[in-house]
Amino acid sequence: MKTRGLIDIAELSTAEIDAMMDVAQDIVDHPENYSEKCKGKKLATLFYEASTRTRLSFESAMLDLGGSVIGFSDAQSSSVSKGESVADTARTIECFADIAAMRHPKEGAPLVAQMHVDIPIINAGDGGHNHPTQTLTDLFTIRREIGHLDNLVIGCCGDLKFGRTVHSLVTAMSRYPGVRFVFVSPEELRIPEHVRSEVLDAHNIPYVETTSLEDVMPELDILYMTRVQRERFFNEADYLRLRDSYILTPEKLKMAKSDMRVLHPLPRVNEISVAVDDDPRAAYFRQVRNGKFIRMALILKLLAANNA
């Protein structure tokens, strides 16, 4: 590993990501070999923002490795409510834990924490910026579902402006050969300029932007659906106007390839009909399960690097 923790998916090379996925797959195949790998180690979960899957996935990962978990799932139940800084909270946690996962509504907060401590800090989502462990989950899911990460057409649909999972996924997948992106969104929620210029254009990655999901559905290998995020909007009227821009239904799936896969970082609101859930191409709940295995692999790598 190139850093003590993981703040941005770009910190990992494709070789490191591939090796981590190999470990995750071995955990799937031989869980008994990993049940005491982190015995005596503590993970702190510092969640300043609501979470179900990410927080429980981290906690389950550490428990399945034989470790233990401390932390908070609501910042108001911690000294943050008294005005404690991110740096001071991190330095306090360092006294009790061997590794920490932090989710924060402000971009850059996990990086600030990492700058003040010597234990590994894992970014579990910072504002609309980055969500590297969700991206590792997405990559591992694609590899398990499709069998490879190269030569794919990946459609990203919904909130591409504020969607940190999309930003991280584009950054990671752009380094695999033969990948092409199709971005489907309302004009107001297009992929940000910095992602286009710093990732796509900088590496000559082909992509198209459209407002029509139906027009591009037949060419997709992966459809990555996202919700329109109420918590990122300053204007409630804008959220209400855009929230139902795209709803995936069985009728729309009829236009897709038989081996296409639907991913979603969840939570789902109404952008995927529950009628889609039984379609074998719907991989989003398998994606949730995969998140535990890849986070187990990440925790092992970071702790090994930090103790080297």
Q: How would you explain this protein's 3D organization?
A:
The chain contains eleven helices and nine strands. The longest helix has 24 residues, at 284-307. The protein is an alpha/beta fold and 308 residues long. 38% of the residues lie in helices and 14% in strands. α1 (14-29) packs across α11 and α2 crosses α11 (284-307). The protein is globular and about 55 Å long. It has helices spanning 14-29, 53-64, 86-94, 109-116, 132-146, 164-173, 193-201, 213-216, 236-242, 250-253, 284-307, and strands at 42-47, 68-72, 99-104, 121-126, 153-157, 180-184, 207-210, 222-225, 261-263. The termini are close together. A five-stranded parallel β-sheet has the order 7-6-5-8-9, covered by helices on one side.
Residue ranges: pLDDT <50 for 5 or more in a row?
Answer: 230-234
What is the CA-atom radius of gyration, in angstroms? 19 Å
Helical stretch tally: 11
Order of helices and strands: HEHEHEHEHEHEHEHEHHEH
Q: Order of strands side by side in the largest beta sheet?
A: 7-6-5-8-9
Q: How many distinct beta strands?
A: 9
Q: Provide mean pLDDT, rounded.
A: 89
How far apart are the termini? 11 Å
Q: Which overall shape is indicated by the principal axes computed on the Cα atoms?
A: globular
Structural class: alpha/beta
Biggest sheet overview: 5 strands, parallel
Percent range for helical residues?
25-40%
* Fraction of residues in β-strands: 5-15%
